[in-house]
Amino acid sequence: MKYVRPPLRTMREVLEIDVNTAVDVALDVYCTQNWLFREFFWMRLWLLVLLMRWFAKERKTCLDFGGGSGILIPSLRTGFDHVSLIDINATHAETLMDLLQIRNVSIVKEDITAFDFPDGSFDAIVAADVLEHFETLATPIAKIKKWLGETGYLFTSLPTENFAYRLLRRVFGKQKPDDHYHNARDVEDFIKSSGFKKVVSLYHPLFVPVLPLFRISVWKKAPD
Q: Is a pLDDT exceeding 90 seen at residue 211?
């Protein structure tokens, strides 16, 4: 599985085309003029890809859960026979896939809470900065558990919302979204209580749990 960064020009073209749509999808952080801010977010995706390369041994099917920006798809498609992306708002993902001429990806524009895949459909599921947007975590976590194969892995990236995170948001002029209902610890505690076992965590950017801005974790279903 390769770590793939779409051309900066292409991503900016997506934003220009879809300027009045998909305003809740944060593709802009990956092509901002601020180099430091941009590289910080790309490094988060690099860490996710690195963990998937290490742990996702079965490489048939992968689900990008709530991946409306499509930013992970160019990498995921290199590691799996087929990738599905589900998000109620996938305008950016569709445009990016068209511009990059990616074909082994299915985009499902549905409400995650109302849609269903067959049980155990995926060898890997990645939920990158999406679970904190669900006010009630029970339904999305139940869906993930149902859709993930028994030997599959769940990969999560979650904002910590700690002091350092809030400070840097202010420094870079980014306002906290109204629908950031949970921090990383709360979401991870809920995942654990829902029948998952954590395999490993990385802490971005210092790799140690000292004022991390993101927790990037790998999960398996816990034995019954």
A: no
Scored b (16 or more CB within 10 A) or e, 47-71 reads bbbebbeebbeeeebbbbbbbbbbb
Separation between Cα atoms, residue 46 and residue 85, nearest integer Å: 19
Query: Pairing between strand 122-128 and 105-108?
Result: unpaired
Nearest residue to 72 (alpha-carbon basis) of 105, 40, 99: 105
Indicate whether 66 pLDDT > 70.
yes
Is 97 exposed, middle or buried (CB count within 10 Å of its CB: 0-12, 13-18, 19+)? buried
Structural domains in the chain plus CATH codes: 8-221 (3.40.50.150)
* Predicted pLDDT at 24: 44
